[in-house]
Design the sequence.
């Protein structure tokens, strides 16, 4: 093991000096801990692509050079590829560890999220009835991140004794010693949250093994503060914050390599290779989200004389599907996460029917976002339902990291748009399209009525990938066209519900109801407008757009920020496809919303039936 | 005081029943605590608009009905207006408390942010040399939010003994009793973070006063767990989670009002008034961000033969302005916040020159975002510099709440776009425009070179409002036009740096450098394109657009998500102004970025000089 540690240090340092970029000091302080974890865990090159094995999360992803060097020691990767192509475009060996490298279970880089990912994997193991372990390895500087504390509490509440957390306790971060930068009683905090706190020498293999075995036997989730020395065995890099994030420089490099007994020609070979500027061949493995295997029940049908809210329609499908698949060994487990809003987001019945698969995370959204992402990566259909503001705005970056991980989790947002009731601007999620558009993998689904919600929910459960289902709060009408047995939801298609050549209205999700009422009123005035229901706002339906530009105007209607949602996407679709609307009018939200009933708020903000009619008339007059 | 408490309960309940919406149980458990805080604090209707007074933050903003009732007892507002217009459109008395109501210092609603806001106000008081107090009142259910713990640590590190935190400890949250929803050792956690933890009876005025006086004398920041009963004196609402977020209903309302000895006609009067549906007259006070009063030094000038990075140019202005105004009583104090990145974000020299005004918050971005927002609201020029990913993506919702508060803080983002170096996708903030566009108040400033950075930084320091300055990492060229003495930065103007009729390139910030090089190369081929430098991407420069559509194509160039940044904004500008580009090409980022040197990454993603030239040629051929 000690020889492996030396080799790993030589390789890691050569990667970094070759790239002239990276994080050597943390890599050096982490080497023995990494070697020990990978030696102990049931995670091998052979089973790295299976679900039933242990999971390892490296939260401080910047120790990537150390991680790759250690992974090579265990045969996960070819060390030459890593040393030569570290931090090069198209190489798997990125600056922060990514799941594409076998042996890495979570792409990291944004600090403080790793323990949450570990909790997600542990919950997925449990849901799959697999009795494995999860190791989460962290730096000490980010022990202050609030999300970490949230994850600790979920682990204890869920009794995840199979998680072992390890801290590389080198007491250095970028701006100096950790207790100068931000004092933090790390031991007291872990213990206050109910963890067992152990200490060991993070450079002593015997002590590491012994302490981890002790942790395995603990009746609580256990954290090990591994006392280390920043830059250990790195000469000038030892015990200073200076080499946190930069290469040592050639002189220091050679001094350290000599000290470690490494091959002094290695660096030149690497530099020669890099100078050739060939595209790296090894891209790592392909990471795909799972396609859930589930039994589905009959659709619920809402006849045109019923009035219900979309979130209830979602809740019914969730409960039905939950019950049909609960604890069925050949089916994908469904995990549902809540942040103290189950009665409002309609997951309370699922909780009753499938209690072991319902995880109450309390008011801890950051951690819940990551936990639910990692639970999906761990082989479950992972669904987190929350108000739009908390389930998205509060946790954008956590969802972004799940997307980078191609985790495939589902986020169900209720109370989006102005359809929040009286809670006011802090609760109005009028930016869900505008936020999610920034991520490349997520799909958004915004149903227009309960029947469409039923279909879309089933579609979302069936299909792989990160998806967001967004719904308002209020009871709404059934749209007859979606009650029709012939209707089948098709992702990306704008559904034409009215035809007319006087104009075309594109409405986002449930705002379709307002557009339809306006269109029907206008028809009485002999004004005939087309109405398109847009339930998949991220996709441009070119057929619909090409059709719509032939009418006298295009109008967009959304209870969403008018600059970043449907109007913006349609405008982009027009310009990029060289289509010209004769006139264009964007009806949406132009400022933070008011506090009042949803109907009143929409009316005051120009988004009522009357508002649409008035604008149509103006467009046709003008 | 006890009579006041009864009146307040009657008024609060009537507000809620009148609106048929609100949070009665928490309002009832909070009443005595609210009355005590407002009785003790040096915050009165007379000084509520001044800086030099105590601050009160109500973190659990949903107890708004209780807060308004108590504010009326102290003469801040007219009780009739509040009772009649609670939760009505255009009324100041929103569902969650807002700063527009005198006596409220921070608009809240998203839980867990209040202590951070209190820390911000306390730091602002200290920076203004004012020796006041800050009271932060919170619910118990949100004690689990990670951001809260981050704020605790900053308070202790900064020795903010003048903060008194109070918890309405009623042990109920939406989904039940708090220790069932999410176990959390509240006392141990506050103590582990270095606070003094006191307890008292939250319905007993004597105990409340005594305990708060004790807290005032503490040598540490002090939190008081005020033991209360959910829904206290609310009959059926007592000691249950059921009435967390809904009106009691008429029958319960009258039972409770009778018990409290209230006027049984009150509700009818309110309902009659509400039925008239008149627009509420009282909108509250106008909340404006401060315009900093500062002395400025001479501009730094970077001649065309120098090469530096924009962040260094920012750092120089910051240090210069800091030194000129440090501890000058007639100048606005400048507070600079850091999250363990000072050497990279170029605030380390400010720290040396103005040590008392530099706040190291550690790796605790959520709290830092809110602290810096509230510090601005508290009368300082508050500047938080961080990497784009951590200073924006991680804390979007915190910035949104600062915007709703019209706080006027400045966020300086470095390492934005693909200009991060080798750190890879988790560190590439390619969505900063796309995120900030969702907020209505924020301005974005993206300088193209060091001279423009110098001017923009000064402009940002001088002007009121929330602003984000975004810069890359690399050393870049000086653009001669910005070195010219005649150049003056003008917010919203796209600067035309090359003229040509073959096409028009709009480039975002420092990507202008690439556009210029491409244009100069193209000129050698007798292809003449206009180049517009867009440093204020949220503003459409209609003159520039109208000019550009006369050329053969419009191209946008940004190292930003191509769907949500400059291309999207320009496309919107075209469509909404009925302008048609003959051709349109958007060059930007189409997927998560690679890990490599910034130049390599841009090249691999089609954003190099060659990439631009190739696309121009194709547009002109096609």
Sequence:
């Amino acid at each position: 093991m000690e020889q492996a540690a030396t080799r790993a240090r030589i390789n890691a340092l050569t990667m970094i000096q070759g790239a002239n970029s990276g994080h050597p000091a943390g890599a050096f302080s982490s080497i023995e801990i990494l070697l020990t974890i990978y030696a102990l865990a049931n995670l091998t090159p052979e089973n790295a692509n299976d679900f039933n094995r242990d999971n390892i999360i490296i939260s401080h992803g910047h120790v990537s050079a150390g991680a790759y060097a250690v992974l090579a020691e265990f045969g996960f990767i070819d060390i030459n590829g890593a040393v030569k192509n570290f931090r090069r475009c198209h190489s798997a060996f990125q600056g922060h560890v990514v799941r594409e490298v076998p042996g890495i279970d979570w792409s990291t880089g944004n600090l403080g999220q790793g323990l949450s990912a570990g909790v997600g994997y542990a919950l997925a193991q449990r849901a799959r009835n697999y009795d494995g372990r999860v190791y989460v390895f962290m730096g000490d500087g980010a022990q202050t991140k609030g999300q970490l504390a949230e994850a600790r509490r979920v682990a204890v509440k869920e009794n995840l004794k199979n998680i072992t957390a390890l801290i590389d306790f080198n007491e250095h971060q970028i701006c100096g010693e950790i207790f100068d930068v931000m004092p933090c009683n790390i031991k007291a905090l872990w213990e206050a949250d109910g963890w067992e706190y152990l200490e060991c020498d993070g450079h002593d293999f015997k002590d590491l093994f012994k302490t981890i075995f002790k942790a395995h036997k603990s009746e609580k989730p256990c954290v090990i503060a591994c006392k280390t020395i920043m830059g250990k065995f790195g000469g000038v890099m030892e015990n200073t914050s200076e080499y946190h994030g930069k290469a040592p420089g050639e002189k220091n490099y050679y001094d350290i390599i000599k000290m470690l007994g490494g091959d002094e020609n290695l660096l030149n070979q690497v530099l020669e290779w890099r100078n050739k500027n060939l595209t790296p061949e090894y891209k790592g493995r392909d990471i795909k989200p799972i396609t859930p295997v589930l039994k589905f029940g009959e659709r619920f049908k809402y006849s045109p004389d019923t009035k219900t809210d979309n979130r209830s329609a979602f809740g019914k499908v969730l409960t039905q599907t939950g019950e049909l698949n609960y604890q069925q060994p050949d089916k994908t487990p469904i995990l549902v996460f809540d942040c103290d809003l189950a009665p409002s987001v309609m997951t309370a019945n699922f909780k009753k029917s499938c209690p072991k698969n319902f995880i109450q995370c309390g008011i801890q959204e950051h951690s819940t976002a990551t936990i639910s992402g990692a639970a999906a990566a761990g082989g479950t259909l992972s669904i987190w339902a929350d108000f739009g503001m908390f389930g998205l705005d509060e946790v954008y970056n956590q969802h972004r990291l799940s997307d980078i991980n191609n985790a495939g989790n589902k986020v169900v947002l209720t109370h989006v748009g102005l359809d929040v009731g009286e809670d006011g601007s802090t609760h109005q999620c009028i930016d869900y399209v505008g936020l999610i558009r920034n991520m490349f993998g997520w799909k958004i689904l915004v149903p227009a009525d309960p029947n469409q919600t039923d279909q879309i929910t089933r579609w979302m459960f069936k299909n792989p990938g990160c998806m967001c289902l967004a719904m308002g709060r209020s009871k709404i009408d059934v749209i007859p066209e979606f009650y029709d047995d012939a209707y089948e939801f098709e992702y990306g298609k704008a559904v034409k519900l009215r035809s007319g050549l006087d104009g075309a209205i594109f409405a986002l999700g449930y705002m379709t109801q307002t557009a339809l009422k306006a269109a029907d009123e206008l028809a009485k005035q002999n004004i005939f407008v087309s109405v398109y229901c847009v339930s998949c706002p991220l996709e441009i339906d070119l057929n619909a757009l090409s059709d719509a530009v032939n009418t006298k105007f295009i109008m967009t209607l959304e209870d969403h920020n008018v600059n970043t949602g449907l109007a913006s996407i349609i405008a982009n679709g027009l310009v990029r496809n060289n289509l010209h609307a004769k006139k264009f009018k964007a009806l949406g939200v132009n400022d933070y919303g008011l506090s009042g009933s949803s109907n009143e708020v929409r009316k005051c903000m120009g988004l009522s039936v009357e508002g649409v009619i008035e604008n149509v008339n103006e467009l046709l007059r003008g």
Observations:
- The mean pLDDT of chain B is 97.
